[in-house]
Amino acid sequence: MELSTILISSAWAGLFASGWAVLLTAPARFIAAAFVGGFAARFARDALTSWGLSQNWSTAFAAAIVVLIAVAITRRNAVSPVVLVTGVLPLGAVVAMFYTIILLMKVSFLTGEALNGAVVELSANLGKAFTTTLAIALGLGAGLGIARFSWREDSQEG
Amino acid sequence: MKPVDAALEVALIVMRNGGSTAAAERAFTNVLKGYRLGGVVAVWRLDFVAASREENGQTETILRQVGAIGVNLTRVSEASVLGERVARGEVHIDALASEVERIRALAPPYARWVLVVTAACTAAFFSRIAGGDWGALGIVFVAAGIGQCLHIWLQARKLAVAPMTLMCGVLSACIAVAGLRLGLSQTVPATAVASIIYVAPGLPLINGFFDLVSHRYLFVGLQRIANATLLFLLLSVAIGIAYAVVM
Question: Does the beta-carbon distance from A81 to B210 stay under 8 Å?
């Protein structure tokens, strides 16, 4: 993937994240932070994928980066949920997740060749939704672990 | 206002406005710290919060209903700051009740038209992230904008979250699918999903996840995730209805 393509998709993700922060009625100071979180998450995922890392590991790293950005912005031994929610949504398997449920409803009334095709598509979407969600959860968990470790180090130094 | 009551009121502002359980407990503990009151145990659920304290060999338990959960993160932020100020002794105990009332009365920070335009733009941006073409961006902008108008109108009438999500989802998805039928875009999944993204329950899902991984709020975490899953299912049903009706 070219750098310009990555930057454009990251900009869309950043704009989406900041818009989502407004919809969540987040205070104005979090809107720029949400843009940074969304942009960084998408940039990290696309850049890592284009450097050869698998989609799932890239997503996990990107989710961890969102947590660290949220921690850096909040700076009070807490994680800003706004930055997290808005940051991980552009990474999410939302399209695959919705499409899986729609296909699930569709396969109930299909027959023959159409049913076979839909089942294959359903399995692929289900797998994608599951692994992406798992990668995000793993990344968030790892990010939180790193953040907690650094808070402990800070409190011991303090 | 009694100390435990006051602490519960501040914590409930956090819970009722989309804050995490950890943030609610932090506010609760901070207020009690300001009163120099220890030995209070709280139980957190999505439908109620119970706080119990032993005094002179007798146990007093206070139960508060959480009620409808909305989203106003400005109130959450103000309640958290209030808790910290009480803990540092910057807010006198007598002034706490009026501070709680002030936060409760805080209006959403953005005007309705701002929320409508933002919902339309946010959904349109999402269509690009999900791989939609420029036609999808236009369709989604209109579908989400009109859907958000209905969302605000229904919110003002205090409709429950589930039917409100379904109604907004059906309206937006129908408009999006109509646009697809007219041939304005070729990217079907991106258009359909992006049109309803503004009602997706992202906040309950993330709060639920954090409650679960914290190991301290397992029940409330499960309640939040179950609630978010139901809303995702309703949104999928909305897309399904739109396909069946319009396509």
Answer: yes
